[in-house]
Amino acid sequence: MASILGIGIATIDIINEVDHYPLEDSEQRALAQRQSTGGNVCNTLQVLRQFEHHCALAAVLTPDADGVLIQTKITQRGIDLSPSQKIGFGHAPTSYITLNRHNGSRTIVHYRDAPEFDLNAFLAIDLTPFDWLHFEARNCMDTAAMLAWARSMSRTQTLSLEIEKERPHLEQLFQFPDVIFFSRAFAEGRDFTDPRAFLTAAHHWAPQAVLILAWGAAGAYWLAPQLGTIHSIPSQIVNPVVDTLGAGDTLIAGVIHARASGAATADWSPAVTFGVRLAEQKIRQIGFDGLNTQANQQANPIEPLCHLDDLGPADAVGVRPQNGVPSIIVVRAHKALYAYRNSCPHNGSPLCKTRRGYLTGQPDGLTLRCAVHHAQFDIQSGACTQGPCPGTSLQAVPIRIEGDAVFLASDPTPPANNESSIPAS
User: Do residues 254 and 375 share a domain?
Assistant: First the structure.
């Protein structure tokens, strides 16, 4: 596997899920809230780690509580933070994200009180162990110098660049990378509505680079200087669209994985196709977990059910879909986790058919509820407390925690006492 260095930003993402996008100057209750690490390059590395690549992040890390949480979560994902710059002030970059469950769209408000990763910090990194360097286009004057330095140090390392949005001095970056990933938003921001016309223009800006343009539901387009022809990779229909957050970062990870793991030919179609398919899988689910397993269409006995980041202090999430319906409910309450089969003992129907919507009551008195006949169940024991099935219980599922991930325990048989809670810490 390849050794990959990502240079960019690491954030805390606070994600509120709503059933429709709120109107200006209005108040709306979120259906769910979760918190996770984010940042374009950080997301890309998180996906690449699932394919067993060695990944390292070069970013600015702050000492506040959110900054420490970012470091803990990224390290738990197996990403090396030794190239990053730890500073003694500032607040971790934070993205406040509104996720519309109706169509999977997301709106982001970003706040930061920390400097960008700069040239001096980059020059302190030993680049020799890395096969691939992937940059996010930000702090462009310094990033241009980083790219120039990296190119002067080695002609064998692959340098890639992600351009998501317009930035001052962006043109300084174009002459150095081997690969440039463009977003549709960037192309449309430069008044291009035709992806082929955009790539034709971009080829004049960076004639040495392979150019890859993500175009949403239409798939992706790419142009290699050796071939001189624009190719398209159509997307497949995704229904329903669950979560588009990080889809572009996932596409980039898929392309890097495919190229880093295969032959270095002039034909980038297999790599771009893999990236598109991986992004399609991403938008079918919340988060990035399990993308390697699903991309290869293989059963993975150690695939996590979810991560602690997916659950609030009093929360429940449906996981392990079967025919589109979650088959297991993971519940977090009073710093403990419980898991149950998503099957009501009344008639065997799912308590709920969506990822969330299992809890009812107040935070100090929550119960699990069946949406069909409104039976209610105690969170800690699974026993029916109200409704048409008194004297019965939900079937507990044994689970275990490793790092930040929640897994099925190795013994598939539920414990006799119906208790499968473990501390969530």
Answer: no
Asked if residue 225 and residue 79 are part of one domain, the reply reads yes
The full length of the chain comes to: 425
Q: Are residues 324 and 285 in the same domain?
A: no
pLDDT, residue 39, reads 95
Strand partners, 342: none
Query: Hey, what's the torsion of the CAs at 16, 252, 45, 284, to 10 degrees?
Result: 40
In a 3-state reduction of DSSP, which class is residue 408?
A: strand
91 and 57 within one domain: yes
pLDDT higher than 60, residue 418: no
The three-state secondary structure class of 215 is: coil
Does the predicted TM-score (pTM) go above 0.85? no
Count structural domains, the chain: 2
Residue 255: how many CA atoms within 13 Å on its side-chain side? 29
Determine the Cα–Cα distance for residues 308 and 401; give it in Å rounded to an integer.
Answer: 9
**Does an H or E element contain 124, and which?**
none
Q: How does the average pLDDT of the chain come out, rounded? A: 89
Please check whether residues 221 and 344 belong to one and the same domain: no
Report the relative pairing of strands 220-223 and 91-100 from DSSP bridges.
Answer: unpaired
Evaluate if residue 297 carries a pLDDT over 60.
Answer: no
User: Please, where are the H alpha helices in 262-351?
Assistant: 269-283, 291-296
pLDDT tens-digit readout, 78-107? 999 999 999 999 999 999 999 888 877 889
Domain-embedded: residue 301 = no
Task: Please check the confidence at residue 417 and state whether its pLDDT lies above 50.
Answer: no
Phi first, then psi, for residue 261 (nearest 5°) are -100, -10
